[in-house]
Write a structure and sequence with these properties.
The complex is a heterodimer of chains A (239) and B (371). By secondary structure, chain A is of the alpha/beta class. Helix content of chain A is 37%, strand content 26%. Chain A contains 10 helices and 10 strands. In chain A, the strands form 2 sheets. A 6-stranded mixed beta sheet of chain A has the order 6-7-8-3-9-10, with helices on both faces. Chain A has a 4-stranded antiparallel beta sheet with strand order 2-1-4-5, covered by helices on one side. The longest helix of chain A is centred in the last third of the chain and has 16 residues. Chain A is globular and about 45 Å long. In chain B, strands 1-2 form a two-stranded antiparallel sheet. By secondary structure, chain B is mainly alpha-helical. Chain B has one domain: ABC transporter involved in vitamin B12 uptake, BtuC, CATH 1.10.3470. The two termini of chain B are 28 Å apart. The chains are: A alpha/beta (239), B mainly alpha (371).
Chain lengths: 239, 371
Amino acid sequence: MLLEVNGLCVNYGRIEAIRDITFSVEEGEIVTLIGANGAGKTTTMKTISGLRPVRAGSVMFDGKDITHMPSHERPVLGISQSPEGRGCFVGMTVMENLEMGTYARPDRKSPAVKKDLERVFELFPRLKERSNQAAGSMSGGEQQMLAMGRALMAKPKLLLLDEPSMGLAPKLIQQIFDIVTEINSQGTTVLLVEQNAAQALKRSHRAYILETGEIVREGTGKDLAADPAVKAAYLGGDV
Amino acid sequence: MSYAQRGMDWVRALPKPAKIVLWVLFLVFLFALPLLNIPFITTPDSDFGGVLFTVSTYVLVALGLNIVVGYAGLLDLGYVGFYAIGAYTVGVLSSLHGSWPWLWTVPVAIGAALISGILLGAPTLRVRGDYLAIVTLGFGEIVRLTLVNSQWLNGAQGISNIPRPPGAELFEVPSLDWSSGAPVVDLSNTTTFLKFGITDQIPYYWLALSVILLVLLFDKLVKDSRVGRAWEATREDEDAAELMGVPTFRFKLLAFALGACIGGLSGALFAGKAGFISPDSFVLLLSILFIAAVVVGGAGNRWGVILGAIVVGYFPERFRDFADFRVLVFGLALMLLAIFRPQGILPPRRAVRAIEADEKLEALEEGEVRV
């Protein structure tokens, strides 16, 4: 098991953002957390990457207890997150953003980095065209790609993607999900958080449904997509 | 793009040998500046060497504060506190409670400022944004009030008889005389190299200028390193920086400590030249002028903040003719700058990019549809 979350509780002040959630991600999988706004998806992601403190429960990564590990030590272990929305360093160029991705890598000066850069450029040809452009001057979709590319430059074992399709045009959403599938097939485990349930369920091996801070359902992507209750609540009736 | 920006680009585009020659000429010019007595630039109502020294301390302070405010993005409104700690460390060790030579006290002054920077930063840098500004504002005042009320530090009377930097009397350097219209070498009005005396302030300026050059070199080395990149990431998006593996707290503390060191160093220089310090030398207004220098010049760009420091340090001295009005005029000038050029006279490239990005985002949010 690559990631094991056990009985996790996280608070914002006195408000319980997530309550006693338990889930796991197996190596090689794409696992999705779907849920409405405010269900606790982003909080879960931030807790796994260490940006939110844990009130109760534990997070295990690769057999190691990382519940209270500082966030900046987690990329070294192989956890890399592409944050929600525009999480790029807007004042830096595309290239500088990608270089920031390698910040925690012990082998950041080796030729392996160059290979990874080529791989990212292959996945996102747009980034190559714009490598000397300021990240902030790009469109939302391009910035999303950059955030994903930057996370990949850390060469993670587990890639955390927080709403990669948010605010994008339908055509672009399709493209982003294709890339997620491609990244996964190249061997990176992906934990995905999405509101776009239709696409996400289609692409993931397994999924969990989060409602007001609790996991209410789990299953394979296919099963959940076929479930009438899920269909009604998240898929707008038809896929 | 401003003229200043265009000028910078022009310099950057020159071939390397030309750049070096230009730099050397510029340095010679800077060192010779107080001797040239150039009309209009030279202050008519106060000793130009002294003014240049004051401007140099502003530049030094601005460079230090730029690390904190410009590079790491931490608003420090109590920077004068570190300046005071540097100056008082020199005063205490060399005059009040000891008789160390000035030069020996300087590293201790830097160390004292460093420690106070860490002590102030460690608990406060965990909070974000406005709180830090308030805490640092308090810090500056607490330092001053401690100086006023401490008997051991001689209270409001301050410390006098601070020794001067070690010098030697090697040779005389003549100055220029413009009184006949054209520049004439004036052998009767000379400066002794390198005598740190009372009347001739030019050697202090030379010392300060040399220190500035060293700090600039250090600044460049740090800014262009992994540390500089980490500061930049932290300033732009602290969470994203953490996700990349940047220990943001540690880097903020480092910026704070380095800034404090340079503040302490400036204070030590000031004490060595003034010979006398008192709590009145370290008022809140000074903190605000320091911040003004950084912001007016363009936080994050070392050339910008130097320009800002020159504006803040030099103009009030140059226009002493306006007597009481000069502060008013100066305030007005700062306000105009804030309105028409909020990013500073010479902002860093990245800030310009970030502002453009913000404007774009705003336009986007107002309904302009783009993919």
